[in-house]
Prior knowledge:
The complex is a heterodimer of chains A (217) and B (102).
Chain A: H1 2-32, H2 38-46, H3 50-61, H4 66-77, H5 80-87, H6 95-102, H7 107-115, H8 122-147, H9 158-170, H10 177-193, H11 201-206, H12 208-216
Helix pairs in contact in A: 1-3, 1-7, 1-8, 2-8, 3-4, 7-8, 10-12
Chain B: H1 3-26, H2 33-56, H3 66-79, H4 84-101
Helix pairs in contact in B: 3-4
Amino acid sequence: MKSRFLEGARMIAPVGVAAFLFALSFGVLARAAGMGLAAPLVMSATTFAGSAQFAVASVLGSAGSAGAAIAAAVMLNARYAPIGISIAPAFHGSLPRRLLQSQLIVDETWAMTIRRKGGFDLQVLLGAGAVLYICWNLGTALGLILGNVINDPNDLGLDAAFAALFLALLVPQLRGRREVTAALLGGGIALALIPFVPAGVPIIAGAAGSLVGWMRG
Amino acid sequence: MSPVWASVLGVGAATIVLKATGPVVLGRRELPSWLAGPVSLLAPAVLAAFVVTQAVGGDREIVADARLVGLGAGAIAVALRAPILAVVVVAAAAAALTRLLT
């Protein structure tokens, strides 16, 4: 059992480096968005999901409401319901145990575990998840320290960095016609609404692109 | 409660529930297809909306400024399959340089 935990930890190690640097940019951008020090740390420890955390920083940084921030993040994390269901049969034991273990499900640990030769193994997921969790939280802390020395984040182009970051997260998602349709509609709806509604709302409305993309794809 | 803490705690609680839905609540049952389909397209739609609002969003107006230069530079980095941190740094540097020169 222990060896497979270590197998997962070893397999994910290169991704851990990337996760550390990704979390570092979250720390810097969260600081730039005025989230303070403690809130981003708590967020990395509890949410542990990159795009949703950047979404919250982005909405709050542009003076959007908490409701808009939460709605946008929940839509980005909605994928964890089907992802969790796809590997649910591997989880055993008491309810609190399964609840805790399920928190180590992220895109990378899930993808690695389902592709593994020899079949899906919960211990591999837990080993990989533990490594990523540590990297994610350490990276956030270091990013917050670095972000502390920045005076005006926009002088450094951090607002543009946000846009590029979301683009880098979007591109791997565009696997087929339906995904491209959903993205074009989501972006188009958001663009059309910017002049008329408060910050954050264009993003929530953009989510409607997923419905239309599904019906027409 | 401040908007920051409300968001952090709200998103944290929601994410914990979403991740636990399969392993704790649903077990071996599957999501109905009418729900699973649109859910799979939420991420591309919402991420695209974020790219747009972050690049040209202003205070209830569309603003074209140095952010677009940064996004363009970042897009080139993405096309070259650069790691995410490199994309972020390239985009920030391009926007900062544009502001410095204009």
